[in-house]
Sequence to fold (228 residues):
Amino acid sequence: MRTKALLCAAGLLAVGAVSSMAQSNVYSLNVVGYINVSLTNGFNLIANQMDLDGNRTNNTVQGVFSTNFPNLTKVYGYSSASGTFGIATYASGSGAWVGGQPNVNNALSPGGGVWVQIPGTSGTPTPLTLTEVGNVVQGSHDLAVATGFQILSLIPPVSATVKTAFGYPAANLDKIYQYNAVTRAFTIHTFAASSGVWTAGEPTPAVGEAFWLQSTSAKTWTQSFTVQ
Fold:
């Protein structure tokens, strides 16, 4: 598995390294920071790539999105097991996100993704920006890929090719759908095993971008990343 060493040149706006040295000479390195993800009115397909605890757990809609959103903003988390969405809705009066768990919270683990629906005319750019804060997940981590549809992303905050750089085990006719929130259209990338080529080019998600994956079989996608 190829290990990426260049951290988020396009979108990681601030990174700090915190290290500790114990008497036993065990060295640990945590990289923390933030990324900004621009949103438009209507639907956006995004990923949470800054992790709360570095272990891809404990990421919640309240923790990731906080309270800086218009009233009735919705976050949709998809479960490939049930084929259903959980929907969390923001109530500005109380400053709380209502409903949607656990599907939404599960989908906010790095490597997953959610739909975010901002009230207003679809596709209209807004000054709204989601700032994701937390740890950069390092090492090798497995994503379970189910047969059929699911929403996935790269685990770390980088823009890179899914197969060449991050080892997605593409099978013949696997499809990745990338969504453009401004044009409200998908670009569909289909893998041809005989040639090793993707239609529309190999998918290269932006920082903070999630995508639909339609897999022809169940498998494991191991992603490896190390900051050096």
